[in-house]
Design goal:
Length: 178
């Protein structure tokens, strides 16, 4: 076997075989800036979708950890509120002894009276705060109110007959007098 000689390449033509009009030659097509703006918008949107929930969660946690500030008590009106609260506690205890109120309702009403007293005395919305919200408030008098409300919770939310109204009324009077 003898090697076969490779064919010699034929040279390419020097130019097109047809006449070329210079108007047919167009410059390169430029990309539209619209695509650049779209890409930037999508990148910003993706960053917001990722970071926004994380940022909102951090803000909520920071607000939850912040203690509630207690405004300065208003002394002039506290005497009238204390008298009202003591009278209302006596009335609730009397109605329970007469059988007009069941134990659960009596404990709920005592809690409501103590919350209204705390709201008027300390300027807090104690009537609308949950027990966890009251616990966040850092003040000694509010601490006594919170402890009483926490002690009333089992009787307020239990079946009727559980809890002692007389003991709760006595403790509520102590909180109002302090």
């Amino acid at each position: 076997m003898s090697p076969t000689p490779s064919p010699t390449p034929t040279p390419a033509p020097a130019g097109p075989s047809w006449p070329v009009n210079p108007d047919w030659i167009l410059p390169p097509v430029r990309y539209s800036t619209w695509w650049l703006w779209l890409a930037a918008f999508l990148a910003i949107a993706a960053v917001l979708v990722v970071l926004l929930p994380w940022l909102v969660r951090r803000i909520r946690l920071a607000r939850a950890r912040r203690p509630v500030t207690v405004p300065v008590p208003r002394p002039p009106s506290t005497g009238d509120v204390a008298v009202w609260a003591l009278q209302r506690i006596d009335q609730i205890e009397r109605q329970h002894a007469e059988g007009k109120l069941n134990t659960r309702s009596a404990l709920q009403q005592i809690s409501q009276v103590v919350r209204e007293f705390a709201s008027s005395r300390f300027g807090l919305p104690a009537h609308s705060l949950t027990l966890a919200g009251l616990k966040k408030v850092s003040a000694v008098p509010i601490g006594r109110v919170t402890a009483l409300i926490e002690a009333l919770y089992p009787g307020e939310f239990a079946a009727d007959g559980e809890g002692e109204v007389a003991a709760a009324a006595h403790r509520a009077r102590q909180v109002v007098w302090s």
